[in-house]
Write a structure and sequence with these properties.
The chain has 316 residues and is of the alpha/beta class. It has eleven helices and twelve strands. The chain has an eight-stranded parallel barrel with strand order 1-2-3-5-8-9-10-12, surrounded by nine helices. The N and C termini lie close together (5 Å).
Amino acid sequence: MRLCLMIEGQEDVTWPDWVALAETCEAVGIEALFRSDHYLSGDGQIGRGSHDAWTTLAAIAARTSRLRLGTMVSPVTFRHPSLLANAVTTVDHISGGRVELGLGAGWYRLEHRSFGFPFPPMRERMDMLEEQLEIVTRQWTEQEFSFDGHHYQLEACQALPKPLQQPHPPMIVGGAGKPRTVELAARFAQEYNVLSADPDECRAVRRSLDEAAERHGRPPLHFSFMETTLIGRTRDELLERAGRLGALHFDGISGEQLLAERVDGWVCGTLNEVAGQLEDLAAAGLERAMLQHLDHRDLDAVRMIGEQLAPRVAGL
């Protein structure tokens, strides 16, 4: 099981915060730093800001040398696929080939209304996702092509420069294991990512992914999950960290109350307990964990993940 850090950038993560997170991840050997692609706090909180996802990743790419970088995930409603493909290519060049693109249909209605992004029905957003996956892939791999879709039209498009990674940067499709996202991933992506991983559900998704990839004549996709993560070296440290998280994101509830009421499905516990959870998930076919770290200024937790947890689960 490979471990990545996932940060909710819309929760007032400042540029100094990003620098500290990236430098810490790189220092302790965490494989990748992923960030959300949002402009509004997930809690609808007033006063929490967000730097643009791809601009932030470009800046981090210039400050790091090993850390892989990506979005988890970019909504198709925010950007034209030509803009997105170029943005990812730009970060790929700045980083020397360390970027990954997570792409999804988008879900946050309030955010779209607040910032003026169109928010069509789910079926239409899924159609947009299908067209964007094809366009981005073709811009990265073809010298020239035209595209006449329902949402996007391109004529004799020559997208240069091409990415450094060959055949192109890894593409990740996020979903809940439903047939359409599985099918799109099998056609275009290299990885499929689920939320709130349950081992039994993941085994079923793993089978669906393998069957879909075989139908399209492709090798099996990588399989990952993203989940809120809360870890302590000891029970007392876990409780202390839970108290800080409750104050930040859960209406000030105590650490005891947070652990009793809110952590169902999370990657949560002492180091030993979390290692056991990840072992169960690896046995269900998951290969990579995007650990959602909500207390983004808690760098000690990041160091613990890289220095103590990652070596324990590396062989799973």
